[in-house]
Structure formats: structure tokens, C-alpha cells
């Protein structure tokens, strides 16, 4: 796929999300406790009322950060706070049950095959997180699979950063230079560091993960002859718009208006940068002589099956 084609899609996606953010900004001044869902479709408003009801006491026990820690540009409504609590706690449950000790076991003799198979653990844990999100869980299984295949390579890096507490993996650089090319790790680290400004707000990245898992036109396909057929693309777009609205409200809660707009631009542009980098990695993975021995999940995500 030519990069100028990819960038055309990137620009469309950026315009779409920034436009939504600006429209939401205009409506924020009109919102109150009764009107907080005014910009959402009727069906989605009804569904949200059901979704935000705690399914267990465990989901809302751990409060999000105290409001005194943030700016006063926007006050979150109770429903928003419950939703964010549920997202945060669902992620913490996944993290608590996963063993990432393998990330410190690579040696100079480690192969791309070993790396890929070990990384399947991280991918599986992120799948478990998405399966705890009501909207994702209610999708047709075919659509769930397509979303994972299409979007995981673009967003898995946010999951890595949260799990590693925003620490660089300098040890992996020499391996990536050998497996991919010399510039790959440098560019990947450079992209990571754009997100490091959010290290005090990991919930922001957890919410971003949900926004982008519902993307239907962001990914550069690994096979130009492959066309995914979603069962219900309209509902995917509704879900993404819903969570983008929540993301925008949360950004305005954390930051003043100018910084919220800048944060949205950074998030979108760096996800698109990950996309281009993963096109490079996918090309290398597909040329690997050991690709037939990769974990089945990694084969699927990298288009080897």
C-alpha cells in the first residue's frame, strides 16, 4: 500500500475526530445533569442508562482521581464518573491476572519467533479487557474478530505503556534493529514519548484504547485484496462516537480547553504514526522464515492466515 494512500485516510480520520471534539465543545456549555446525553442518539442514550448501572460492587469500589487534582474547566457528571470507574477497574482486573515477567527475559540470542510468541500474552490480555466492555461484548463475534485484526497493531502500544508504567525498553532496541531495521525502534520510541505527557493519567489511555478498537476505516490493510464485511458498521460508528464524546469530556475535565484540543490531536496523530510503523513491521514479520511457527493469534493479527 502506498503511503500517500494511507495518509489520505489518516487525514480523513483526523478531521472526523477533531470535528467531533469541536462540536462537543460547543454543546458543553448547554449541558446540565438532565441534558448530559443530548448529543447522543436516542437508542444509545437508553442503552447507556443500562450500561452505567454497576454489575457488581467491585466495579465501583475504587474511585477515580479526586477532582481537586485537576483543572476546573469541566465537571464530570456522576454517570461519566461511574463509566470511567468501570473502565479503570475492568482494566485493573485484567492487569492483575496477567504475568508480564517474560518482557525482561530477552537475550542477545532471542529470535523474532520468541518475541512474537511471547507478545501474544499481551495481546490476549487486551482482548480480555475489550470483552469486559459492554458495547464490544454485544457485537456479533465476526465483527469482534475483524476489529481485533484491523486495529490491534495500531493500539497495542498504549497497552504496553500502561503495563510498563511508561518505562522505555532500551534492551529491545538492538533486537528490533536486527529483526526489522535500524530506524524502527528509534521511531517507535519517539512515538511512545508523545504519550508520556499523559503518564499521570493512565485512565486517559485506557479510554483511548476503547475509542480506537471501534475504528472501521483507520487501518492500512495488510492485504489489498482483502475487504472486511462488518455485520453492522453503523453501530460500530455509534459506539466510537459515544466513547469519543466521553474522551473529549474527560480531556476537558483534565485540561483547559486549548490543552484538551492539543491532547486530542496528539492522540490521533500518534495512533496514525503507529499505523505506518506497523506496516513496516508487518512486512518484516511476513518475510520471516519462522512465520509458520508463530502463535495463532499473532498469525491472525499480522495477516499470516
Automatic annotation (TrEMBL):
Domain NR LBD: 79-305
Transmembrane intervals: 203-222
InterPro entries: NHR-like_dom_sf, Nucl_hrmn_rcpt_lig-bd
Transmembrane among keywords: yes
SUPFAM superfamilies found in the cross-reference section: Nuclear receptor ligand-binding domain (SSF48508)
Domain of life of the source: Eukaryota
PROSITE patterns linked: NR_LBD (PS51843)
Keywords: Membrane, Receptor, Transcription, Transcription regulation, Transmembrane, Transmembrane helix
The protein's name: NR LBD domain-containing protein
Amino acid at each position: 500500500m502506498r503511503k500517500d494512500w494511507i495518509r489520505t485516510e489518516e487525514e480523513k480520520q483526523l478531521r472526523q475526530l477533531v470535528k467531533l471534539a469541536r462540536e462537543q465543545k460547543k454543546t458543553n456549555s448547554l449541558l446540565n445533569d438532565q441534558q448530559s446525553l443530548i448529543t447522543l442518539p436516542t437508542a444509545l442514550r437508553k442503552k447507556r442508562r443500562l450500561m452505567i448501572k454497576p454489575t457488581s460492587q467491585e466495579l465501583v469500589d475504587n474511585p477515580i482521581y479526586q477532582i481537586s487534582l485537576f483543572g476546573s474547566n469541566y465537571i464530570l457528571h456522576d454517570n461519566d464518573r461511574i463509566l470511567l470507574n468501570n473502565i479503570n477497574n475492568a482494566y485493573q482486573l485484567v492487569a492483575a491476572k496477567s504475568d508480564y515477567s517474560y518482557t525482561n527475559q530477552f537475550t542477545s540470542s532471542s529470535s523474532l519467533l520468541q518475541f512474537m510468541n511471547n507478545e501474544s500474552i499481551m495481546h490476549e490480555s487486551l482482548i480480555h479487557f475489550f470483552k469486559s466492555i459492554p458495547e464490544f461484548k454485544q457485537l456479533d463475534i465476526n465483527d469482534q474478530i475483524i476489529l481485533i485484526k484491523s486495529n490491534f497493531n495500531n493500539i497495542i502500544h498504549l497497552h504496553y505503556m500502561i503495563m510498563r508504567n511508561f518505562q522505555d525498553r532500551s534492551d529491545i532496541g538492538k533486537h528490533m534493529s536486527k529483526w526489522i531495521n535500524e530506524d524502527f525502534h528509534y521511531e517507535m520510541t519517539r512515538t511512545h514519548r508523545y504519550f508520556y505527557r499523559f503518564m499521570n493519567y493512565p485512565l486517559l489511555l485506557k479510554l483511548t484504547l476503547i475509542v480506537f478498537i471501534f475504528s472501521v476505516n483507520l487501518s492500512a490493510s495488510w492485504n489489498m485484496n482483502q475487504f472486511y464485511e462488518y455485520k453492522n458498521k453503523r453501530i460500530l460508528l455509534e459506539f466510537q462516537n459515544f466513547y469519543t464524546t466521553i474522551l473529549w469530556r474527560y480531556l476537558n475535565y483534565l485540561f483547559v480547553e486549548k490543552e484538551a484540543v492539543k491532547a486530542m490531536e496528539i492522540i490521533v496523530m500518534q495512533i496514525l504514526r503507529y499505523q505506518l510503523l506497523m506496516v513496516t513491521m508487518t512486512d518484516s514479520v511476513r518475510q520471516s522464515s519462522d512465520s509458520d511457527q508463530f502463535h495463532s493469534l499473532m498469525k491472525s493479527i499480522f495477516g499470516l492466515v
